[in-house]
Design brief:
The protein is of the alpha/beta class. It has two domains: 46 residues; 127 residues, Glutaredoxin (3-Layer(aba) Sandwich), CATH 3.40.30. Helices cover 46% and strands 16% of the residues. The strands form two sheets. A five-stranded mixed sheet has the order 5-4-3-6-7. A two-stranded antiparallel sheet has the order 1-2. α2 links the parallel β3 and β4. The termini are far apart.
Amino acid sequence: MPQASRFDRNWVTMPVLILLLASVISCAALEEAQLRRQERLKRKLEGYTTPPGMPVEPFPLHGQPAPLFTLRDLSGNQVSLSEFRGKPVVINFWATWCGPCRVEVPHLEYLSKKYKDRGLVVIGLNNENDHQAVRDFAQSQISYTVLLDGHAQFQDYGVRAIPCTYYIDKNGIVRDRDVGFNGETEMDRKIKNLFSSS
């Protein structure tokens, strides 16, 4: 009889041990899959960024007045770029379907808050037809101004790939541009340059 109870105990503990082992293996596999996904995203983003040390090509609007526009924000209010004369402005051309844009948004949000007290204005300029998708995304992630229907502005600013970010000084002159997300440190440096430019 004691042998039978020992056998019963083994019969019960064996499946428990197997389940524990399976969950440990499963967790390790999930972690490895997540690391692989992060590596793939990192490699993909490298295709959108400018390698360090590579000379930046001049672009037509550099040193020129930023093209003015008036567009509606997410609440339907009209917002004009001219309203912000006297303040440095960062215009970020983006879309909800753009992976690098989605990676960039939290960094832009952080920098927007970091320099808000110094007068920095950040504008997310979007040209998607599905305004609700833009609202849904922005509602939980973006506190800076988002403007809709920027089709003409994508052309006026020569945007060929997104994300694309323009840095405009307080006099309304385009001082710099990023094509792709080149990292928060680089964006921070270019924003600081806006405060020091005349």
